[in-house]
TrEMBL record:
This is Sigma factor SigB regulation protein RsbQ. CDD domains: CHD (cd07302). Residues 31-51, 523-543 are annotated as: Disordered. SUPFAM superfamilies: alpha/beta-Hydrolases (SSF53474), Nucleotide cyclase (SSF55073). It comes from Mycobacterium attenuatum.
Length: 571
């Protein structure tokens, strides 16, 4: 059970708004602290309280429930537009404010937005998780913090590795998305595994050219630098070496090391990077219907500018703005321009799209195998009882996994889900449920854009899922490669069934069967989900814990530490 908790202790008046330097880390004494339980066994209803609007005010840290997890979040600013910051795994909602550049950008954005910052599950101040999270689980976290903060329809700012989750959210929940802003992010990664970090950069360049086209290929020099960054994440997370590769404006490796350790454990950093290698959201891009702005530094060392250009070229109506700068974080890369472009998008009349009746959905079809033979063997009355019970099982399981039963198809059902992970888990449960009735079913699943009709759905994605079902045998759960690429980290295993032509659908389609017992031992997916992902406290040093405690509960002590540092000449 999680407690709805708010941190609200402030520094003494003479210390508020002051910045001190401790162990090479700039700390703002307005960091929130001091846990106080606002209720036992109950959750406070969302309420809109005045949010801080200047850096001299304290942004309170609250917690949102997401299943069994608690996610730390803050709200800043008093503008009319709601903006959700969907950041990377290098996130800590309180330590963010120790960077003056970040605070400056937030203050600018806060004049026209209410900004919702949050730490994803497993990083920063949020609960640890036993394994890396899937993309649709990350999208569900965005929805959870929006609900807790009382946000209705918000603009999403997807930063770095947080971009794909923001893309998925915008595609699956257009009714809650005002606009989409993407900065320093990508839909597809050049490196597909740790082994790619050691290969010839020319091989990676050739691979990207085949996948994306020559116009979206980074230079060999950029690829070599990105391999260095990946090696630092894998082997040196916590030393500052990884963030040093992508944040040129921060010269202190010690400061970056502290930030790394307090944001994520080495296991979480490795698992998140490995999952990012294999996530591919390119098929989702054409389904986005909200106004989209892509911001990218021309010399971004973390994600090449070509990735931003690909996003802008493949999201309908997206606008690309290339920024001068060589930092991965947007608050170091021309923050005045960043704020101005976001303000123009959100307040300049570009963020009021017509009501869309289309959205990304995962479509699942079931069908009872050899139904005619089974009906003849059982007789009409007993067969009707079997069909009725299977319909009840379908309704129960679909609801349990967050889906919607659209309609019966006679010997099966059409259901939809916001994300493919839950669809696969529901499919596995449906298969087991059918076996209790001594029947076999086959299942076809695809993720794509659907037309949302009155009590029904339509569109090419529905036809594709139906055609996939037609290739499934008894007991099979067949999926498209789009589904596979979106469930990285789920533990699901897939057997390649080859490429086929789907009647009425252009091109060849790779089909995969969901393995009955999860990913096979030794596979990339099995290794990923077995990677330990403890919370950041597991890797924090004593000095890190001292910084965290002082920043939360007794920031005025930092004044004395700063005086001592100045007296001894320590920098």
């Amino acid at each position: 059970m999680s407690l709805p908790t708010t941190y609200s202790m402030q520094a003494p008046p003479d210390m508020q708004g002051r910045r001190l330097t401790v162990d090479s880390i700039q700390l703002a004494t307005h960091v929130s602290s001091g846990p106080t339980a606002s209720g036992i066994g109950q959750r406070d209803p969302p309420r809109r309280e005045p949010a801080p609007t200047t850096l001299d005010a304290v942004a309170e840290t609250s917690y949102a429930s997401c299943g069994d997890l608690s996610l730390a979040y803050q709200v800043f600013g008093d503008g009319p537009v709601e903006l959700v910051w969907a950041g990377s795994f290098a996130s800590h909602v309180e330590l963010y404010w120790t960077m003056p550049e970040f605070g400056s950008l937030m203050e600018k954005l806060g004049t026209f937005t209410r900004i919702l910052l949050f730490d994803k599950a497993g990083v920063g101040l949020s609960d640890p998780v036993p394994r890396v999270r899937t993309l649709d689980e990350r999208a569900a976290e965005i929805e959870a913090v929006m609900d807790a903060a009382g946000f209705g329809k918000a603009a999403l700012l997807g930063v770095s590795e947080g971009g794909p989750a923001a893309i998925l959210f915008a595609a699956t929940r257009p009714e809650r998305t005002r606009a989409l802003i993407l900065t320093g992010t990508t839909s597809y990664n050049a490196a597909q595994s740790w082994d790619d970090l050691e290969c010839d950069p020319a091989e990676l360049r050739a691979h990207v050219a085949r996948e994306l086209g020559e116009g979206y290929v980074p230079s060999l020099e950029w690829i070599a630098r990105s391999q260095e960054f990946g090696r630092a994440v894998r082997s040196a997370w916590g030393s500052g070496a990884a963030l040093k590769c992508v944040l040129a404006s921060i010269r202190s490796t010690r400061q970056l090391g502290t930030f790394e350790r307090m944001c994520a454990s080495p296991g979480m950093a490795r698992a998140t990077a490995e999952a990012a290698f294999r996530i591919d959201v390119r098929p989702i891009l054409p389904t986005i219907t909200v106004p989209t702005l892509v911001l990218h530094a021309r010399d971004d060392p973390g994600v090449p500018v070509q990735s931003g250009r690909y996003l802008a070229d493949h999201i309908p109506g997206a606008r690309m703005v290339e920024l001068e700068g060589a930092d991965h974080a947007p608050w170091f890369t021309d923050p005045d321009r960043v704020a101005a472009e976001i303000e123009e998008l959100l307040t300049g009349g570009h963020a009021a799209p017509a009501q869309s009746h289309r959205a990304l959905r995962t479509v699942l079809f079931t069908d009872i195998v050899a139904s005619t033979e089974r009906a003849a063997a059982l007789g009409d009355e007993r067969w009707r009882a079997v069909l009725q019970r299977f319909s009840e099982i379908t309704a129960e399981l679909t609801q349990r996994f967050g889906g919607t039963v659209v309609k019966s198809t006679g010997d099966g059902h059409l259901t939809t889900f916001d994300g493919p992970t839950q669809a696969i888990r529901c499919a596995e449960a449906l298969r087991a449920g059918a076996e209790t009735l001594s029947i076999e079913i086959r299942i076809g699943i695809h993720t794509g854009e659907c037309e949302l009709l009155d009590g029904d759905i339509g569109g090419i994605a529905v036809h594709i899922a139906a055609r996939i079902l037609g290739h499934a045998g008894a007991g099979d759960i067949l999926v498209s490669c789009t589904v596979r690429d979106l469930v990285v980290g789920s533990g699901a295993g897939f057997a390649d069934r080859g490429s086929v032509a789907l009647r009425g659908v252009p091109g060849a389609w790779q089909l995969l069967a969901v393995e009955r017992h999860g990913a096979r031992a030794g596979s990339a997916e099995a290794q990923l989900v077995s990677t330990p992902t403890p919370g950041p406290r597991s890797a924090m040093r004593r000095s890190d814990r001292a910084v965290a405690v002082m920043a939360k509960r007794t920031p005025w002590i930092l004044r004395g530490v700063a005086r001592l540092s100045a007296a001894t000449g320590r920098r």
